[in-house]
Specification:
alpha/beta, Rossmann fold, 2 domains, six-stranded parallel sheet, 9 helices, 6 strands
Length: 210
Amino acid sequence: MGQKYNRLDKDQAALLLVDHQSGLISLVQDFTPDDFKNSVIALADIGKFFNLPTVITTSFDEGPNGPIVPEIVERHPDAPFIHRPGQINAWDNEDFVKAVEATGRKQLIIAGVVTDVCVGFVTLSAIEAGYDVFVVTDASGTFNQTVQQAAWNRMSAAGAQMMNWFGVACELHRDWRNDMEGLGNLLSNHLPNYCNLMTSYAKLQEAKQG
């Protein structure tokens, strides 16, 4: 018998963006560069759209790991930004854990680079600390699909839920009537095919009004 459906709740969830840094992103080979960056920015947009408490962290960003993807900070300029001096597992950094605790949320939406280390270690640590964790698979990247699958399996076995950014957006939204055009426009900005749906919708609305 499967576990009870534990769905994302915009009033219970926080977003953790871990080590989306220019140097580390060059290691991502399980997604194309364009697809991966689009997914990361889409997730950042989702956090902004739903007003989710967001925590950003980087690892040794003055070294080869490089600076954070600027679009993340542009969307979350007031989010706690934890520059870790050396800890590989962000959960080993006291300031990061305090920032997560300060959100007051028990559901953590996590994405980062690389999946098997920066995402995996934080996910396992957060689950051990009593959080419900939702890993955004397409906004987390690593060396290849073999490593990707092993990381997903390890986190899933520990109780994390694997989702993609589109699924996260829809589960948080629950009902199109909450804001049809707002979410529709967000999706259209990151999925060209969804733009076609929104164009059709706009034409139908014009026809009804006419």
